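A reminder from the course coordinator: this example appears on the midterm review sheet, so study it carefully.

Given structure:
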């Protein structure tokens, strides 16, 4: 039986998402396909999700977004939207994406910054370019930590939990 995802899957949280092309094929080395991927990401921004940052690598994609609903629906818009358009506009047949995706719920501002940095440095680490500012297939449309997003355990709750633990341990 497949394990269920977290119950909170809405605009209350932001996510770092990764997905790969089928067989890790370097599909996005072709400029028109990378351009189409960026167009699909921007197309659903504001309706299916809020797009914060993305990087399109030759054989995979990293996205930082806040879904409008279920995270699975946001990924479906991205992957399905791209698959539909590449088949319609470029006549490509066959599998485009590996099944599934990985996601990480952003916990706090530090986690947010770590994932923004990961996106920014990914093309440099992969030795595609020396300066990430020159990488064409990366964007940060809304890279400020979203107001109203809170980690599950707030700072105040952590302090209270620590105080209870310290008090209990003293006896």
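Designed residues:
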């Amino acid at each position: 039986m497949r394990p269920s995802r977290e119950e909170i899957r809405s605009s209350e949280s932001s996510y770092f998402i990764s997905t790969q092309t089928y067989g890790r094929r370097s599909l996005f080395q072709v400029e028109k396909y990378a351009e189409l991927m960026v167009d699909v990401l921007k197309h659903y921004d504001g309706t299916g999700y809020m797009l914060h940052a993305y990087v399109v690598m030759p054989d995979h994609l990293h996205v930082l977004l806040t879904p409008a609903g279920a995270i699975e629906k946001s990924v479906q818009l991205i992957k399905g939207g791209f698959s539909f358009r590449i088949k319609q506009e470029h006549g490509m047949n066959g599998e485009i994406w590996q099944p599934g995706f990985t996601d990480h719920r952003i916990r706090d501002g530090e986690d947010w910054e770590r994932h923004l940095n990961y996106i920014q440095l990914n093309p440099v680490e992969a030795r595609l370019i020396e300066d990430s500012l020159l990488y064409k297939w990366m964007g940060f449309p809304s890279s400020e930590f979203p107001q109203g997003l809170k980690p599950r355990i707030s700072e105040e709750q952590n302090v209270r939990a620590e105080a209870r633990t310290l008090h209990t341990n003293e006896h």
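The mean pLDDT is 85. Residues 15-170 form a domain with the Alpha-Beta Plaits fold (CATH 3.30.70.1290).
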